[in-house]
Every structure is written in structure tokens, then in C-alpha cells.
Amino acid sequence: MRARDRGGEQQREPCGHRDHDAGLKDTVSLLPGESAEIITRFDGYRGRYLFHCHNAEHEDMGMMANLEIV
């Protein structure tokens, strides 16, 4: 995936992204109050993908879900 855009209270760059967002990623770090728009492709695989926050307390509060590609 790629982080296309960032927003929120912690945004530091006027263009909405940071240099470390360039290139393909499997993780996007967010600060409190920050958001990110991501883009990815699901070539050659149909089924479920999991996305989640790496903070276990956040996962328990619903920041974990499945994407189903049909």
C-alpha cells in the first residue's frame, strides 16, 4: 500500500505527506489526531484481508476489521 495523503492535528507538511511515506509500505504510523488515506491493489487474490492498529487496547475498541475482496 501507499500513503497518499495525511491530515489532522499533527500534519506537519503543507502537501499532506512526509518523505518517509514514499514507496510501498505494510505499516503507516499515525500520531494522535492524525489520519492517512491509503491506496493499494488486491491483484490475484479474493478473500479477506485484516487491517488493525498495533495498539492492543485500540484493537479491542474496534480499530481492527476485515476487508473482503470479491
Question: Could you characterize the architecture of this molecule?
Answer:
The protein has 70 residues and is mainly beta. It has two domains: 1-39, no CATH class; 42-70, no CATH class. The protein is built from one helix and four strands. The protein has a two-stranded antiparallel sheet with strand order 1-2. It has a two-stranded antiparallel ribbon with strand order 3-4. It is flat and about 30 Å long. The relative contact order is 0.24. Residues 1-24 are annotated as: Disordered. It comes from Sinosporangium siamense. InterPro entries: Cu-oxidase_C, Cu_oxidase_Cu_BS, Cupredoxin. This is Plastocyanin-like domain-containing protein.
